[in-house]
Here is the input.
Amino acid sequence: MSDTLKPYTMITDFVTGKEIPNIGAEENRQAVAHFLVEEKEYLKEDLDLDIDIEMMVAGEAYRSQIDLMVSIDRGATRFMAIKCAAGSLGSREREILAGARLFDENYQIPISVVSDGKTAIVLDTVSGKKIGEGLEAIPSKKEAIERLKSIELIPFPKERLERERLIFRAYDNQNVNVQRNV
Here is the structure.
């Protein structure tokens, strides 16, 4: 059996301008990034790609990444965590909810989104409830700033952390065709 990886093409990342492998849902992420900047008035500087997330799960260190994170006030407050999927969006809702709940021990990222670049499911992270569907349901930068004025940023309940970590790992382990594995 060969150790050679499947060949892939390179594309220029919209946010960073760097050449990156075009694997998995990368084209979908590029479409979402374009949409956020061109339609929702975020700055490229508001978007962070492949954000590392680390946690202890069942006594072992687990490392992964969140595809796209949207910040307000130059990274001081993370507002939205986005999972870019190539397939069924519904099957990835629980993964991004867990990631957004676990990312920062001080507070849950308020909005979770799963998108294929053509449509989206928008979720309230704390309640887990769907609050919108379609790309237009993604909050604009102006809407994000207003929402942050009226919501309380709260941490995920400590007694539910281990279960949520297990859920995140279970879904995340299914992501085999991703840049971090190249």
